[in-house]
Structure formats: structure tokens, C-alpha cells
Amino acid sequence: QVQVQESGGGSVQAGQSLRLSCAISGLTFENHAMGWFRQTPGKEREGVSCITWNAGFTYYSDSVKGRFTISRDNAKNTLYLEMISLKPEDTATYYCAAVDYCSPTRTQNPIHSWGQGTLLTVSA
């Protein structure tokens, strides 16, 4: 069974930075593309960023491009999301997941159940 543990969320002010982490077990981490998603109440979960198994390709949604950086440490089975210049509209619960694809032409979809997520609140 795949287990996911996101961490690093918190309350920050606009313009500040934060790094999210995601530890995952129950699958061979280095074999999978990974993605970050976020969700706010009343809205659908959206894909924010993804990275291929070897970090050879990364994708960012337009809303975070240039401000967020995804990375991974295959030796530690851990995924990261470095966020700078945070905006109030970044406020959401952030989730990570192993995904079926990380591609510029295909939507990323999780291949297992969601974890609990980590809440980020950005105040103006």
C-alpha cells in the first residue's frame, strides 16, 4: 500500500518563501514520475507541477511558473517543492503523488490514493 506524507506547509506572508516535502513509500520511487497538486475548498484539485523519474523534464502550471521549483531525491524517496514570491492565491492544501505521466501534452494523474496534504496559507 502506498503511503504519502506531505509536510512543510504553514502560514506565511505574501512575498515569502517556503519548501514543501513529500515522503512516499510502498512503491519504487525512482521508477515513477511525481507531481504536486493543490486544492482549495469548493474547487477541483489542480496539477501544479510534475517531474519525470530522472528529473529530465519538469512541468509547471502557468500560475506558478517562475516561482515554484520541483525537485526530487531518489535516494531518500522524497519530493520537494520550493516556492518563492508566494501570493495569497497560492493558499491551498498541497498534495503529492506518483503520477502516470509528466508530459507537456498529457494531464498528470495520480496512480494511488491521496495523502492528507499540507496546508499553505498566504496572507496579504
Largest sheet: 6 strands, mixed
Mean pLDDT: 96
Q: Looking across the biggest beta sheet, what order are the strands in?
A: 2-10-9-4-5-6
Helix content: under 10%
Low-confidence stretches: none
From the spread of the alpha carbons, the general shape counts as globular
Quick one: how many beta strands? Answer: 10
Distance between the termini: 40 Å
What percentage of the residues does DSSP assign to strands (E)? over 45%
Structural class by sheet pairing and helices: mainly beta
Oligomer: single chain
Order of helices and strands: EEEEEEEEEE
The DSSP helix count reads: 0
| Rg value | 13 Å
Describe this structure in words.
The N and C termini lie far apart (40 Å). This protein is an all-beta fold and 124 residues long. The strands form 2 sheets. It has a 6-stranded mixed beta sheet, with no helix packed on it. Helices cover 0% and strands 48% of the residues. The protein has no helices and 10 strands. The mean pLDDT is 96.
List the helices and strands and how they pair.
Elements: E1 3-7, E2 10-13, E3 18-25, E4 33-39, E5 46-51, E6 58-60, E7 68-73, E8 78-83, E9 92-99, E10 118-123
Parallel strand pairs: 2-10
Antiparallel strand pairs: 1-3, 3-8, 4-5, 4-9, 5-6, 7-8, 9-10
Question: What's the gist of this structure?
Answer:
With 124 residues, the chain is mostly beta strands. It contains no helices and ten strands.
Features of this protein?
single chain, about 120 residues, mainly beta, six-stranded mixed sheet, globular
